[in-house]
Each structure stands twice: as C-alpha cells, then as structure tokens.
Amino acid sequence: MHWIILAIAGLLEVVWAFYMKKSEGFTLLVPSVITLVAMIGSGVLLSFSMRVLPLGTAYTVWTGIGAIGSFLLGILVLNEPAAPMRILAGMMIVAGLVMMKLSSV
User: Fold this and answer.
1) Alpha-carbon distance 65 to 97, whole Å?
2) Which domain, by its residues, includes 33?
3) What is the mean pLDDT of residues 52-61?
4) pTM (2 decimals)?
C-alpha cells in the first residue's frame, strides 16, 4: 500500500511541475492554485509512505517519478526536444529507480 501511495505522490509531483510551467511564474490563477494543491498533496502522501519505506528509497523514487513524468510530459505535450542524449539520461533514471525498488524489498 505504501508503494501505491508513493506512486500517487510522484504523479502529483508531475502535475504540479506541469502546472507550474503553465502558471507563467504564478501569474495565472488557476494553474497556480493547481500547482499549490498538487504540491501539498504530493508532500503529504510522500510523508505517509515514509512511515514504512526508508527515507532514501521513498525520496529517490518520488523525485524520480516526478523527473521522468515531467520529462515525458514535456516531450509529449509541450513539444520539448527528444534528443538521443535526453532519452538515454531518462532511461538511466528509470534504471536507477528500478534498482532502488529492488534493493528495498
């Protein structure tokens, strides 16, 4: 259950990163509010998952989900570049997340 909570926290991190971009420096109300609500939700869920999961594992997986999710959203929705080096870097992050998960069974 704590892994599911952590995954949802990571997805909320993607939400707040995307809407922070859309808020144009917190000058647009709706994206700014979505950013803040998602930030709070993400942090609260991360703290719940840390009741059971080790700090290093939970935080690494949380930030990794946020990083990869934001990276993919940037490419797929915001038309950011999908250069080979960026793709390789993303794959390395995913590999690190898998290793972190497997090491904390």
Assistant:
1) 8
2) 2-103
3) 92
4) 0.87
- pLDDT > 90? residue 63: yes
Task: Give pLDDT, residue 103.
Answer: 83
Counting the structural domains of the chain, the total is 1
Q: What is the 3-state secondary structure (H, E, C) of the chain?
A: CHHHHHHHHHHHHHHHHHHHHHCCCCCCHHHHHHHHHHHHHHHHHHHHHCCCCCHHHHHHHHHHHHHHHHHHHHHHCCCCCCCHHHHHHHHHHHHHHHHHHHHCC
Q: Please give the single-letter amino acid code of residue 94.
A: V
Q: What percent of the chain has pLDDT over 90?
A: 88
